[in-house]
Design goal:
The chain is α/β, with parallel strands linked by helices. The protein has a 6-stranded mixed β-sheet, with helices on both faces. It has a 6-stranded mixed β-sheet with strand order 15-16-17-13-18-19, sandwiched between helices. Strands 1, 2, 3 and 5 form a 4-stranded antiparallel β-sheet that branches. It is globular and about 110 Å long. The two termini are 50 Å apart.
Length: 556
């Protein structure tokens, strides 16, 4: 369906990738991975025709419909949400609009011939089923029917992006190009998207930092690294194993050749002055010249070095919550929550969206006041809190977006020299003059890394993390898991990332509409005892459908 021939892209003197020759086939789903800045998004833009290659060719069938996830929702602010989605099918939407105009002026002049042509276009594109399909897609992405006829401006930014995703999917494109499609999706919507993609018949190319999404959806991983683009069959787990094995094999081959060279050199050094061995020594020198040592390129992947150390140990009981209740208007999100956290716990707080998980953390750290109940921190507890919206937390705490990274981080370690501050920034991948960046100029991922650097210098003995993997790339997520594992304090975190929870939790607290369920032990032990996996999207989807059916029956 899509073929690349010797594709290259450079910016100034820097080459993102070169010599890429690949073919992308119908029915396959390609997960595009690589470090931030490696060229993933640029590669996708070249395929979409939004950017040009420095060299090489991209071949896409002329009649193929290419669906690209846009980020600019402002052009649709005043449009009905359902209409925005239907606009994705440009031919049918244009025909439907023209039909309305013909009918509007029919009393003065009815163009029967043009009406017939437009009607055929609508029928050929199944235009009369378009609205129903658009509604189903919106429902699948968590936007309920009551909102469909409202203007797009009534939705929050995250839900507006869901509408733009629905717009792409409603077009029924032959090629899907999606850059981080799971951003701003809850677990139900992610599962719906996974199922949609698994049944998709065209070519799908997806950039994602979500381990589980890539493992579930991808049939091939396209790796942008070492200044090249290479395809690995299988999902993300298969790719990681194959790439590691490939690198080890090359390093082993190089080591063997270097060992042979050393043997030859030793012989030459030993016998070069001996007349009877001179010919053999000369032969060994020629053999050394014939041995080629491949210089392995450096990976563009960069792993931050997160490190969390507690300044001192807390008391045995870290925090106790008694009878915590919280409402927003008429919506009650927490009701009489009791919870005691002990030193050394790594507590995963889980539950469906909107149940009050983030609110619970905010009440715990004093960011919000409970309507009822109390929070009592234990002896010598020093919590370090990282909010879900990393950048907003940074801006709020910095007091001004124009403050530099060095000044902001230095404020948390006033007794340390600038070299120490620079070292802490370098550990989280801000090197050289990047420390002079302004807080307001940071991306979401950069803001997250900076907040973790702050925790490194503040040395809390309790880490409170709300969706800490938001905006992080795969490498940073893996580095964060390693750092939290090594931290010998207490951790309380909210996450929908099943892989992240699997790797870290030693205790699971589940918030449900019926109350709080506490499961001491690992995540696997929680599954065995609970019998349901609330982080498993298929199970959540099943329960949601059952709940919706029950609600309809009650309404009757």
């Amino acid at each position: 369906m899509i073929s690349l021939s010797n594709l290259s892209k450079s910016f100034g003197g820097r080459t993102l990738f070169a010599g890429a020759s690949l073919q992308f086939n119908r029915g396959e789903r390609y997960g595009i991975v690589g470090a931030n800045g490696s060229g993933k998004s640029t590669f996708l833009k070249i395929l979409a025709g939004q950017d040009s290659a420095t060299d090489g060719d991209v071949s896409v069938p002329k009649r193929a419909i290419v669906g690209v996830l846009e980020q600019d929702h402002f052009q649709y602010e005043d449009e009905r949400i359902l209409d925005v989605v239907m606009m994705g099918n440009e031919v049918v939407w244009a025909a439907m609009e023209e039909k309305e105009k013909i009918l509007a002026r029919a009393s003065d002049h009815f163009d029967g011939e043009r009406y017939s042509i437009v009607e055929d276009l609508i029928l050929q594109g199944d235009g009369y089923g378009l609205e129903a399909r658009a509604g189903e897609i919106l429902e699948g992405l968590g936007i309920t029917t009551v909102h469909h006829t409202q203007p797009l401006s009534t939705l929050s930014g995250g839900f507006k992006l869901r509408v733009l995703l629905a717009q792409v999917l409603a077009a029924e494109p032959d090629v899907l190009l999606l850059d981080e499609p799971t951003n701003h999706l809850d677990i139900l919507s992610i599962r719906w998207l996974e199922e949609f993609l698994q049944g998709y018949k065209g070519v799908a190319l997806l950039i994602s930092h979500d381990h589980r999404f890539l493992d579930t959806v991808a049939t091939t991983i396209v790796d942008v690294d070492y200044g090249a683009i290479k395809a690995y069959p299988g999902n993300y787990a298969d790719f990681v194993a194959a790439k590691h094995e490939e690198r080890e094999r090359k390093e082993s081959e190089i080591a063997k050749r270097e060992a042979v060279i050393e043997v030859h050199k030793a012989f030459v050094e030993r016998f070069r002055a001996k007349a009877t061995k001179a010919r053999q020594a000369q032969s060994r020198l020629k053999a050394i010249d014939r041995i080629e040592i491949e210089k392995l390129p450096e990976s563009s992947r960069r792993y931050p070095r997160f490190r969390f150390q507690q300044r001192r140990q807390s008391g045995r009981q870290v925090v106790e919550l008694k009878g915590i209740s919280k409402s927003y208007g008429e919506k009650r999100v927490l009701e009489g929550v009791d919870l005691v956290i002990q030193r050394g716990d790594r507590v995963a707080i889980i539950g469906p969206n909107g149940i009050g998980k983030s609110t619970l953390l905010e009440v715990m750290v004093g960011e919000k006041k409970a309507d009822a109940g109390s929070v009592e921190w234990g002896y010598e507890t020093h919590p370090g809190y990282v909010a879900q919206d990393h950048k907003s937390q940074l801006v709020a705490e910095a007091g001004a977006e124009r403050q530099t990274l060095e000044d902001w981080l230095g404020g948390f370690c006033p007794g340390e020299p600038i070299g120490f501050v620079k070292g802490q920034l370098a550990a989280v991948l801000f090197s050289g003059d990047e420390g002079k960046k302004r807080i307001g100029a940071l991306s979401g991922g950069e803001a997250a890394r900076l907040l973790f650097a702050r925790q490194a210098v503040a040395k809390p003995n309790v880490l409170i993390l709300d969706e800490p993997t938001n905006h992080l790339d795969l490498e940073a997520i893996e580095a964060l898991v390693a750092a939290v594992r090594e931290f010998d304090g207490t951790v309380v975190f909210v996450s929908h990332d099943r892989w992240f929870v699997n790797e870290l939790a030693t205790r699971v607290v589940e918030i449900t509409p019926e109350g709080v369920q506490d499961y001491p032990g690992s995540y696997d032990e929680y599954l065995a005892r609970a019998g349901e996996d609330h982080l498993d999207a298929q199970e959540v989807l099943r329960r949601a459908r059952e709940s919706k059916r029950a609600a309809r029956q009650d309404a009757k």
